[in-house]
Design a protein that fits this description.
With 141 residues, the chain is mainly alpha-helical. The protein has a single domain (22-140), classed as de novo design (two linked rop proteins), CATH 1.20.1440. 64% of the residues lie in helices and 6% in strands. It contains four helices and four strands; from the N terminus they run ββαββααα. It has helices at 25-42, 57-78, 83-108, 117-140, and strands at residues 11-12, 16-17, 44-46, 49-50. The strands form two sheets. It has a two-stranded antiparallel sheet with strand order 1-2. The chain has a two-stranded antiparallel ribbon with strand order 3-4. It is elongated, with a radius of gyration of 20 Å. The protein starts with 10 loop residues before the first strand and ends with a helix. The relative contact order is 0.20.
Length: 141
């Protein structure tokens, strides 16, 4: 039977350090926010039309942000170094500030038919991406 000699916290005898997950909670929340925003794009935004039926620049920006955020957990998990995920998250967090401001403007001045659930779900996903992005970036520094 093997004894644990010279054991330290976080060490298992003969195996080295206990592996820690590379993807932290903030990165998982980024991915979740991206998926929520994608779901919102498929639901009606205004006038009973989904974002793909009545496409606009704002919806294209939400699509780009949602895909970029959904990719974050995979980028973090597959990256051998930490510089690419940090740059990706910093860019995404900055981009999201602009996008959330544009969504707030759309909320203040809605189209004539009003806004529907797709807009609010996509906006909630974007808000989650923004908060989780800043949490992920601040964790790195």
């Amino acid at each position: 039977m093997e004894t644990q000699q010279n054991s330290r916290p976080g060490m298992i005898s003969g195996t080295g350090p206990i592996p820690r997950p590379r993807v932290h909670l903030a990165e998982w929340l980024l991915g979740l926010g991206g998926l929520v925003a994608l779901v919102g794009l498929f639901l009606p935004w205004a006038g009973g039309e989904s974002s793909f039926e009545a496409f606009s620049l704002l919806k294209l920006l939400v699509l780009v942000a949602a895909l970029a955020a959904a990719a974050v957990p995979f980028i973090v998990a597959l990256s051998a170094r930490t510089d690419l995920p940090i740059v990706w998250q910093t860019f995404l967090s900055t981009f999201m500030l602009l996008l959330v401001a544009l969504l707030a403007i759309r909320l203040l001045w809605p189209p004539s038919g009003g806004l529907e659930e797709g807009f609010f779900i996509a906006a909630a996903g974007c808000l989650l991406i923004t908060v989780a992005g800043w949490a992920a970036v601040s964790r790195e520094y």
